[in-house]
């Protein structure tokens, strides 16, 4: 199965996403911010198949887009699943990199499974 790096600054949502990813049979890696994500991404021996990132992260000008752009720079083949509590707009999707799938919060385990599956195939 896949290794999914989850970047979410809300501790409750991060834990919930971790459990969902585990229940799907994938391996979750967790980060609450850009620095935590970069620690995982810069570990050469650590495989990462999907970056699952909240678009609206505190302390970053472009939030999850900043994380995704730096992740793609470090790992060009990485697939990115964006999430947000707001509806997707064209302006949002114009900034997507790495395959750019979107999953609106709140999401269910089947929705997450579908989205991760789409990115992996």
Short structural description:
With 121 residues, the protein is α/β, with parallel strands linked by helices. It contains 5 helices and 5 strands; from the N terminus they run E-H-E-H-E-H-E-H-E-H.
Structure write-up:
It is built from five helices and five strands, in the order E-H-E-H-E-H-E-H-E-H. The chain has helices spanning 11-23, 34-42, 64-74, 90-93, 109-120; strands at 3-7, 27-31, 50-54, 79-84, 101-104. Helices cover 40% and strands 21% of the residues. It has a single domain (3-94), classed as Rossmann fold. The radius of gyration is 13 Å and the shape is globular. Strands 2-1-3-4-5 form a five-stranded parallel sheet, with helices on both faces. With 121 residues, the protein is an alpha/beta fold.
What descriptive keywords fit this protein?
alpha/beta; Rossmann fold; 5 strands; 5-stranded parallel sheet; 40% helix; globular; 121 residues; 21% strand
């Amino acid at each position: 199965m896949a290794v999914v790096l989850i970047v979410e600054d809300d501790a409750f949502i991060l834990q919930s996403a971790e459990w969902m990813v585990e229940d799907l049979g994938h391996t979750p890696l967790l980060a609450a911010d850009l620095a935590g994500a970069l620690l995982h991404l810069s570990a050469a021996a650590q495989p990462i198949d999907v970056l699952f990132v909240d678009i609206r992260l505190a302390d970053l000008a472009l939030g999850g887009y900043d994380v995704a752009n730096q992740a793609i720079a470090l790992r060009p083949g990485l697939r990115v699943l964006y999430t947000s509590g707001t509806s997707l707009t064209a302006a949002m999707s114009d900034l997507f990199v790495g395959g750019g799938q979107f999953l609106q919060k709140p999401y269910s385990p089947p929705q997450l499974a579908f989205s991760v599956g789409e990115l992996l195939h």
